[in-house]
Protein 1
Amino acid sequence: MMDVRSLGYVVIESTNPSEWQDYGTNILGLMNVPSDDGSVYLKMDQRPYRFAIVKAEQNRLRYCGWELADEAGFKQAKEELQAAGIEFTEGSAARAKSRRVRGLIQLQDPSGNELELYWGGELDYGKFISPQGISGFETGFNGDMGFGHAVLPASKLAETHAFYTDVLGFGDSDYMHFHFSPDPNDPGQGLNFMHVNNPRHHSLALYEDAANPVGCVHLMLEVTEVDEVGYCLDRVEAAGIPVVSTLGRHTNDNMLSFYMATPAGFAMEFGTDGLQMNWDGFTPTVTSLPSLWGHKFNMPDA
């Protein structure tokens, strides 16, 4: 079974990457990494970057990069994908260099979300200096917990969930089911929360959604101090950025957070105090209440 360690990075396509440079530094408090290829790179810890924003003709999340332990695990992952009949593309040396990794492959899940599996992620140990004075983000030892989590749309929820659990080796954390219509025949929408081999409660969630043009429901960043959540909320409101969800605390991962709009059209959860789990003997849960308090959602008009 594959040993995926963390959500290492995301690649976001943007019609105007400079919007992300402004948003990433002035709102999120991430550190801009100078580049000469026209892309925007945002750093939050010992890794060279966690967000890569590339120029494109549309705004969307393009890739989630999932970290494997080592080269042996990378080779094993390719063998398991081949045995399962799942197609993948070997990343070029130039692509690996740009991702700051030693090797990667690209593939799609059954709902069409694109992902990269990689090994040998670099540590540049460049000092993280937040332009907003944030002392740090919760990413583990040398970033081994990844930058946070991603919630992706899944038009084929059951098949996509099975892909991540049965093929990629993710573990189940929690399940929720939502009904937004009073129609008793409305099947509702499922939401699977999954973890990889680190203590973060979930690094991935799949939301049953057949129509999502930006390829993402939300991404999450976790700071280490609660006041930083409030400071960020103040920056968001001062900048006139839509607050997609008010401040609240989630049930399943205990995260104290709020959600805001991003330049790409999906949401960004900004939080603190998320649970760190011991997965030995863990029994996956089914949760009927998303939040203990708060988190009143108000999706901005498209």
Note: The chain has a mean pLDDT of 96.
Protein 2
Amino acid sequence: MDREALAVFLRRRREQLQPGDVGLSAGVRRRAPGLRREEVAQLALMSTDYYTRLEQQRGPQPSTQMLSSLARALRLTADERDYLYRAAGHAVPDRITPSDHVAPALQRVFDRLHDTPALIISTLGETLVQNALAAALLGDNLGRAGFERYEPYRWFIQPEQARAHYPEDDHARNSRAQVAGLRAAYGAMGPDSQAGMLVAELSRRSEEFRALWERHEVAQRFADHKTLLHPEVGPIEVDCQVLFTEDRGQALLVLTAAPRSEDEEKIRLLGVLGAQRFRADERAPRA
């Protein structure tokens, strides 16, 4: 671990970012350029003290999970992320396999989407980031482990949860879309990849998946008009638009309702309900 290289790199990258680059308000006038240390810590989901010690060459070796969070918070490119890992004394992540490092270009667009559900997913359907409205509409899928990270697994193995967001008459179409998307990822990544392991697990556990897999349909189906179900506000009709990275390894999904429609009002209501729950959680007594 090169503590000096790590500290200088973190400081320089922090100084080069402005609050607007990461979706933060500039607020009052700043005495120093760039982001504050506490803002980087907040974005990376770590304590300010921990991040400060890294910049001051006093911290312990950060884990790969911490480095991944820092790379995302500082909007690093793939080359910059690799340098960060090397400076911290870790092997560089393989760029061929799916990565949880969000492409900076997608992240910048995502940061500006506050009034409509939006999320970024990997080629295997893993949710990498999602805003509060997306979590309210589709469920909070961040932080899942193992095969549960992947939407096709949840769709076929945990249908009581995954399919509750969709009308029953849309389940068959969505099943085909899930398998066609996984077939596309499998073709690009190969049988010895994470896609291959996911296909093997689903083939072992789901008869429905096995039957659809044999159809050999291949497509990445995102742009769509669909109805989503919410237990409190009811059905919401949305259009799903997608923005891919150049290698199509990640996709930004944006769900919008028709302007001045009842569905648009329901999405606004989701935002209000989410804020009320957040305040209620803050008032709840701690164990």
Note: The domain at 104-281 is CATH 3.30.450.180 (Beta-Lactamase).
Protein 3
Amino acid sequence: MTNIDQLIKSVEQWSIDKDLHKGNPDRQALKFYEEAGEVGAALSRNKLDDLKDGIGDTVVTLIILAQQHGMTLEECLQYAYDEISKRKGRTINSTFIKESDLNGNS
């Protein structure tokens, strides 16, 4: 089985091979939204194979979007984790709500 680091590097190389790494990030963001919509469609239809494909395709679009901005998926994920790891709040109806949102603050 391939590990996540190898997969990310493979996607980055595929992006370079297809000359997407220098593409228009706005177009890549639109591709992300399209793939995210497929995730929603798969969930609504309870199609697990389509869900797996949609999640994978969504991650691919994010890897390329990060690459287009001189970033890596790892550093973006680390940045996000550093933020969420400090958050306080509550889970309500299976959704985590930040403390500041519970209190009505921004």
Note: The domain at 4-102 is CATH 1.10.287.1080 (Helix Hairpins).
Protein 4
Amino acid sequence: MKLIAPIIVLLLALTAPAFAQASFDTKARFAILMDEESGTVIFQKDADLPMEPASMAKLMTIAVVFNEVRAGRVKMNDEFFVSEHAWRTGGAASGGSTMFAELNSKISVENLIRSVIIQSGNDAAIVLAEGIAGSETSFAAMMNELAEDIGLEGSVFTNATGLPDPNMHVTARDLADLARYLIHDFPEYYHYFSEPEMEWNGIKQANRNSLVELGIGVDGLKTGHTEAAGYGSVISTDDGGRRLIAVVHGLKSMAERTEEGRKLITWGARAFERVAAYADGAVVAYANVYGGTSGSVGLVGEGEIALYLPRGSRKCLGASVVYTGPLMPPVNAGDKVAELRVFCDEQLVQTAPLFAAETVEQGDIVRRATDALKQLALGWL
């Protein structure tokens, strides 16, 4: 008999004070605000709908390059060749953002990285892709492989630049998770994102992320724009005592992108107070396990789970744990198996991943038969 795994929802009674989400809205069509340390989502607007990434796709290009450097397959002082494809597709003649790399020249990996981050150089991104994988197509396969490893479930990459392609798409949530990955896993390279300018081939260009220069604590990460997608940016700041990551996209102008990004990141830094709901390792709930050595497994956060309460407003907090279950053994400790969802007035305002607290192996035949009868009985109810 084939068992159908339903979506199971566990309602929780939290001991932390209740709250109402502070009033906030944005002109951005897509938006998300995330706590970098915990991954908790504080604000979201169509964060899981597909959207064209534009040059924000270059964050995945940079992630692949950083991985290659960390693995020792690429060195910062390696020099890559500027092909005609890179020069013609991403150079000055293309009309897009460019490093102004000279045809048939060689450029160090470090300077190519700086150009991709600071200047959004399309030519630099293509040179990196060809230097590492031989072609953009092969490099895009590496991008998608890493995206899967990171857990970006709503993204497909087809090139290194973010130039329009109907088959390429991301979500605001995936871009925030990608930014979190870059910040967490490669802190030694994060300083590139806040460099104010870069000069190459006698041409000086300012960091395209104008928020870096506003003095509000923003130190990254990437902007993007196409005619079809509008203007967007991935932003981060540690102002206000914690690091936040924001994504806004689908805006009408550079000025609107700057203002909406500033408003969202400032609101997140100033409007909330942090309240610890569950300590590191504390069990939030239990998920059923079918045919395991134990009939359930504890669910824990990735470290401490914190709630962010709007200052002066503590009303209406509710929460649930959602997972597809029952879980099938083996369930390994550390597996991501559920999600904590926090609501205010029935509106989802925060999410946080939950992980198996311990390993549950497959049970003996008696245990599996007993659980099968339980499932059959539940099916009749």
Note: The chain is about 30% helix and 30% strand.
